[in-house]
Specification:
Blueprint (H helix, E strand, L loop, with lengths): L73 H23 L34 H13 L3 E7 L6 E7 L5 H20 L12 E7 L8 E8 L1 H6 L16 E4 L6
Parallel strand pairs: 2-3
Antiparallel strand pairs: 1-2, 3-4, 4-5
């Protein structure tokens, strides 16, 4: 009787490769979760919470010990309200006032008072300007920076008198030239005025005033008289300003202005 062939011995199973760290591969043991009970009849279904959601802690954190901050106390609230009212009182009028009111006129000593707003050809009172006022304006326009007309008198058919103050210049010689230019320009304004219209020129007297060094007020330094014939026919051109005093029919000149 034949014997069955001998079976080779069984080899032990090869060990499984272990993961990093030397621990065998295995699933973590998770305790079984209790099933969520179904919602009661009429109860709204709660939405599913996202992964990693943590419910907020129950209850509010305890209030720190001590008194509340100043802005939560009655006095602090009152102070804040007063500050808001003051700020509004300062800011609101800036945006709401001055809509239809004209701006106030500012007058300073450095720039003088504002000029008259009367229309040309009329005075501030609405009356037409007199001959003297017209001559004063015309003489000042001609005089320019050489001086300032202070007064004009022009009675009908009488002696026309013009008084002006001579402008101080950088030197005595230039100041004397201002006086001569003043004579030529004032006389030119008289020639072009209505006083000489129709060939009936008036007699003219010019009085130039100037504050000499050491004096406390202006004094008369130039006094000239022009007869009607001279007023009508003389040529009072600025180019001949050196002859200004010589053109007069009578002249009284202060020694300081005879150079």
């Amino acid at each position: 009787m034949e014997q069955p062939p001998e079976q080779p011995p069984k080899q032990p199973p090869k060990p499984e490769p272990q993961p990093w760290g030397g621990q065998p591969w295995s699933r973590p043991q998770v305790p079984p979760r209790e099933p969520v009970p179904p919602p009661a009849w009429g109860e709204p279904v709660r939405p599913r919470e996202p992964w990693g959601y943590r419910p907020p802690p129950s209850g509010k954190p305890p209030r720190p010990p001590g008194a509340p901050p100043w802005y939560r106390q009655p006095v602090g609230i009152l102070l804040i309200g007063v500050a808001v009212v003051i700020v509004l009182a300062l800011i609101v009028p800036t945006f709401t006032s001055g809509g239809g009111e004209p701006a106030p006129t500012v007058t300073t000593g450095a720039f003088g008072s504002p000029g008259s707003t009367a229309a040309p050809g009329t005075t501030a009172a609405g009356q037409p300007p007199t001959v003297a006022e017209q001559l004063r304006q015309a003489a000042q326009d001609e005089l320019g920076a050489a001086g300032e007309v202070t007064s004009v008198t022009a009675p009908p058919g009488g002696l026309v008198t013009v008084t002006w103050e001579i402008t101080r210049a950088g030197s005595q010689g230039l100041t004397e030239n201002n006086a001569r230019f003043g004579v030529m320009r004032i006389m030119r304004a008289i020639q072009q005025s209505q006083l000489t219209a129709g060939g009936d020129a008036p007699r003219v007297r010019l009085i130039g005033r100037y504050q000499l060094p050491g004096a406390t007020a202006p004094v008369t330094v130039v006094r000239l008289r022009f007869e009607p014939s001279t007023v009508e026919r003389a040529d009072f051109d600025d180019r001949d300003y050196l002859e200004a005093f010589d053109l007069a029919d009578a002249a009284v000149i202060h020694p300081a202005f005879r150079g």
